Amino acid sequence: MVEKYDTVVIGAGPAGTAAASSLKAQGQKVAIVEEDLWGGTCPNRGCDPKKILYTAVEAKEQADLLAGQGLNTQSSIEWPDLMANKRSYTKQISPGTHESFKK
Question: Which residues form the FAD/NAD(P)-binding domain (predicted)?
Answer without folding.
Answer: 5-78
